[in-house]
Structure to design on (553 residues):
């Protein structure tokens, strides 16, 4: 039985481990040089900071995930530095360096993770503006801050976590600008209480930030990045009471929660459904991670953004489902226990979406001249022209007419915002404008990549 | 002028030398190219549509906005490429060998 696991973060690692336990030797494909995914990303060998400095309260989980993976190494076919760039039923296409390979599979568990959810605003392409995930990676994997005096803007738990991590690293955080309101958080409390320890941890971060007199503003509207000498000089924003404010800063970390990486499921023609809470199209999966396509399973943030703890459980559960579907005996109580543990995690996730909502209404306020698609230089006005002047009823039509999402990131950065702009311009729901279709290669291949005859 | 990124720890690593836009710069072993270039500079590439300099965005291989070129014409994704001694990098116009 040939099983491929895509991704070696929390979900992929635990899926591989469960398969190995049943005597299977999975192929584990990971784009990174080192296992761990983004959240438990490892620093290079010659770095010396202890796990507590890198992962804080989650250090124990990170160390366990790394250690358990190292123990698995002899029993898996581990392929780091390898991108899964295309797939057709039964065959995955990978590239590592210049070398393209076809990998046959009976079953595939996709644990491809997530990236920051981005709402463009004027100046977001100026050097010194990074995503929140980027700000965290710079610190964790390279021991660098994105600037000496950064502002963090957006919403979601990562906004506060990254600011706290920068504070602890001795960086002079100039402010936290949150588009969601305190009121929204209060309404979400009941759902967030599904994971009391995580909720309390979050409150501790906020208390530390306030004790350090970091400015925390909620219910704000981002206005623009002011640039000087080709780099960030300040962030203009409107406060709760409608006054314009300017915060001096030399860097900006921005993000509004996360979006799932779903391209491979898309290429396999898995069914997607619209998630009204996140206002995103997600692969349809059953409670164990089965997609609509036989033999294809999804786990972790690449299926539904519920965080690292849920990803570990969902990885094991998807592996159990794959094993059971292949006719192997999997204890029913094992799967039921995993499902039970995921229930409060899903509830907590719903609380996060309600308490730190994607600020969809901002899309309609982005000035016409603001760049939305940073790959192709497509502005909000271009998308509105596609919507009205060219009468594009849905996102792929807008893309073929005006090119948003056509570039090398394939809409990972702009796709969700482009959908909101299009929907607002046409006066329809964001669900009605659909989603960008995936295309292989899901990321650019090197020009020198050598394709096997069957692919070329 | 200082670079965009600021090192806050792990600065006891071995120094390597690479060339960025014709100027030799000292970097640290196991820096990514993005770290190496942005701790001393403020750009990795130029937008293709005349919209100014770019300096990466996501650092996780998704946005593809940190591409740099070698003088020999090879394209590298700076956020996921580890520096090697003697690398010769171009951040301005794409070189046509």
């Amino acid at each position: 039985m040939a099983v491929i696991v895509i991704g070696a973060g929390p979900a992929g690692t635990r899926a591989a481990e469960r398969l190995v336990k049943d005597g299977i030797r999975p192929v584990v494909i990971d784009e990174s040089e080192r296992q761990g995914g983004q959240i438990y990303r490892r620093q290079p060998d010659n770095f010396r900071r202890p796990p507590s400095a890198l992962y804080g309260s989650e250090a124990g989980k990170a160390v366990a995930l790394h250690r358990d993976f190292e123990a698995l190494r002899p029993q898996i076919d581990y392929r780091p530095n390898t991108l899964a760039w295309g797939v057709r039923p039964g065959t995955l296409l990978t590239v590592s360096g210049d070398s393209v390979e076809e990998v046959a599979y009976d079953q595939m568990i996709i644990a491809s993770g997530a990236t920051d959810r981005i709402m463009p605003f004027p100046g977001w392409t100026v050097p010194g503006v990074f995503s929140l995930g980027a700000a965290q990676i710079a610190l964790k994997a390279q021991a660098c801050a994105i600037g000496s005096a950064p502002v963090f803007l957006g919403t979601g738990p990562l906004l506060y976590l990254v600011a706290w991590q920068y504070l602890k690293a001795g960086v002079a955080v100039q402010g936290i600008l949150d588009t969601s309101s305190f009121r929204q958080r209060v309404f979400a409390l009941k759902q967030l209480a599904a994971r009391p320890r995580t909720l309390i941890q979050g409150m501790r971060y906020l208390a530390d930030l306030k004790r350090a007199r970091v400015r925390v503003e909620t219910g704000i509207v981002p206005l623009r990045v002011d640039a000087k000498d080709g780099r960030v000089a300040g962030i203009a924003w409107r406060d709760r009471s409608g006054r314009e404010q300017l915060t001096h800063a030399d860097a900006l970390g921005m993000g509004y929660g996360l979006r799932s990486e779903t391209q491979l499921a898309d290429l396999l023609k898995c069914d997607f459904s619209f998630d009204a809470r996140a206002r995103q199209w997600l692969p349809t999966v059953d409670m164990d991670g089965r997609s609509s396509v036989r033999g294809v399973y999804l786990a972790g943030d690449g299926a539904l953004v519920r965080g690292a703890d849920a990803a570990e459980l969902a990885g094991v559960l998807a592996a159990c489902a794959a094993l059971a579907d292949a006719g192997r005996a999997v204890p029913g109580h094992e799967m039921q226990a995993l499902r039970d543990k995921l229930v409060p995690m899903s509830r907590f996730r719903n609380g996060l979406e309600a308490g730190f909502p994607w600020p969809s209404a901002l899309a309609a306020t982005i000035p016409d001249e603001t760049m939305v698609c940073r790959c192709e230089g497509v502005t909000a006005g271009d998308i509105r022209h596609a919507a009205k002047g060219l009468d594009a009823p849905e996102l792929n039509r807008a893309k073929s007419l005006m090119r948003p999402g056509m570039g090398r990131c394939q809409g990972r950065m702009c796709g969700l915002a482009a959908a909101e702009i299009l929907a607002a311009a046409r006066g329809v729901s964001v669900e009605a404008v659909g989603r960008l279709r995936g295309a292989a290669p899901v990321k650019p291949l090197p020009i020198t990549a050598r394709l096997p005859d069957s692919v070329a | 002028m200082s670079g965009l990124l600021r090192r806050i720890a792990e600065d006891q690593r071995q120094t390597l030398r690479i060339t960025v836009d014709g100027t030799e710069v000292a970097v640290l072993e196991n820096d990514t190219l993005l770290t190496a270039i942005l701790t001393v500079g403020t750009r990795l590439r130029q937008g293709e549509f005349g919209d100014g300099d770019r300096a990466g965005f996501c650092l996780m291989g998704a946005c593809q906005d940190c591409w740099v070129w070698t003088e020999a014409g090879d394209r590298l994704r700076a956020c996921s490429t580890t520096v090697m001694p003697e690398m010769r990098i171009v951040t301005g116009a794409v070189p046509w060998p």
About this structure: The beta strands of chain B are 6-7, 15-20, 23-28, 45-46, 53-54, 67-70, 75-77, 88-90. The radius of gyration of chain B is 13 Å. The helical segments of chain B are 33-38. Chain B has one helix and eight strands.
